[in-house]
Amino acid sequence: MVQIRQKIEYDCDVLIVGGGPAGSALAYHLAKANIKTIVIEAKKFPRDKVCGDGVSPVALRELHTMGITQTNTFKKANSIDTVGLFMKNDQAHINLEKPDDLPFHARIIPRMELDAMIYDTAKKEGAVFYENCRMIDYKVYANKVVTTYKNGKKEGRLISKLIVGADGSRSLVGRKLRGYQPDPAYQLLGLRSYYEGVNGPRNRVDVYFSEENFPGIYWLFPKGETGANVGMAMIFKTCPKEASEVRQCFANHIATNPDLRKRLGNGKATEKIQGWPITFYDSRNPITADRAMLVGEAAGLINPLSGDGIQYAVLSARWAAESLIDCIQQDDCSADALEGYKNQLEKELAYDFSLSNLLVQFGRNKTLTPLWMNFLNILISRCKHDPKFAAIIAGIFEGTYPSYKALTPDFIMKILFQAGLDANGYLLNGLAQPGQLVADGAKFAVTTRNTVTELAKNPKAHISWLTDVAGKTLNVARHSLNKI
């Protein structure tokens, strides 16, 4: 019996939804391998994206292989070799390490410029971009994917062998692939405002910790000669529910933090405060299916500790390309054929992300905030006296080192040793000033009473927190066993 196979006229081999760092980097790798690629992008380049604008050394290594570090735009970007950590009445300045296999220190590159550079590089390799177009829907068939999109009021249709979601935290491709919205327990909220006329070194980023809005961080990243990206990130489940309250938290920090005020000087905001959701890694979520896959933030590839996503966007783009090139050549775009990409993510990122998720989860219980702030004080104290320890702390936030670098026996012993030194110094100071010991004892009693009161007032919330911590601890344990 003769079987007749339907001949399909494909518009492209791979259709990518979203032209950010993940989507455009993937388009570059595929086009370079002669895989016919189309990218649907909602805006026209160059266009802005709300972001911290920090590009890690690991991300720069990926961009270097694409030729982007040879551009004038890159050469003008602020090179970062120092980070400042600030808390109330305490601070540490850390010199960043650069491992030998990484060609550059971190850079601050506004997304308006970064995304345009990757886009230009992808186009030069032959990738086609449909700009000012929004995907409406897609449907997967046995031998094709049919995607509908809109350009203004016009509606179009594209037929591809496979679709890739590179459309960020609110990914439409991801929502359809998963069948549900992301879990709020795996989301951050970020705010940003650009400033001009600020003070301070152009090679140092500053990170601020505040008890009032913990768990959350604030930052100032220098941009150009006198500009700065000033922002904050908070865990979605602990931030105020009203957008106006969140903006007010940010505005209060800018107005009242003395370390930030010193750096801002007479600088002025050049735009309104802008916000964006950040969805980080949840290993329960599928990232591949028949003829569909997710990359970058659409796959939740965000470091929960730092909020960095660009590094994982360009890494996942390369890993996805390696898998897709083989799939297209073998004419097999099934979920089984895409398993290699999923396994690569698990191998490279899952353990680190699961541990970072757990650390962030601990901070979500706001009744324990005084404990976490004391812990941060210990870290900053150690950073001031131990450059190697400080470099690891900064490297974890920067993305140069995985978070499990903080779990080595030597690292933990240094934290415990510093805690002992701080306690000893506190007691010696208390003997000289006994009134301070009495005052601090009273403060501790009040904190303990408030904690117990909060636990009694809302036991369900604390049970939920403990359940989440337990779940994430088991997840870390599972990935730890996989690493062995």
Describe the model.
The chain has 484 residues and is α+β, with helices and mostly antiparallel strands. It folds into 3 domains: 219 residues, 3-Layer(bba) Sandwich (FAD/NAD(P)-binding domain); 95 residues, 2-Layer Sandwich (D-Amino Acid Oxidase, Chain A, domain 2), CATH 3.30.9; 125 residues, no CATH class. 45% of the residues lie in helices and 22% in strands. It contains 14 helices and 19 strands. The strands form 3 sheets. Strands 1, 2, 8, 9, 10, 11, 18 and 19 form an 8-stranded mixed beta sheet that branches. Strands 5, 6, 12, 13, 14, 15, 16 and 17 form an 8-stranded mixed beta sheet that branches. α1 runs parallel beside α4, α1 runs parallel beside α8 and α8 runs antiparallel to α9. The chain is globular, with a radius of gyration of 24 Å. About 6% of the residues have low confidence. InterPro entries: FAD-bd, FAD/NAD-bd_sf, Geranylgeranyl_Rdtase_fam, Geranylgeranyl_reductase.
Q: How would you characterize the largest beta sheet?
A: 8 strands, mixed
CATH architecture grouping of the largest domain: 3-Layer(bba) Sandwich
The CATH class designation of the largest domain is Alpha Beta
Number of helices: 14
Distance between the termini: 52 Å
- The Rg value, from CA coordinates, equals 24 Å
Shape, per Cα inertia axes: globular
CATH topology of the largest domain: the name is: FAD/NAD(P)-binding domain
Q: Give the overall pLDDT as a whole number.
A: 83
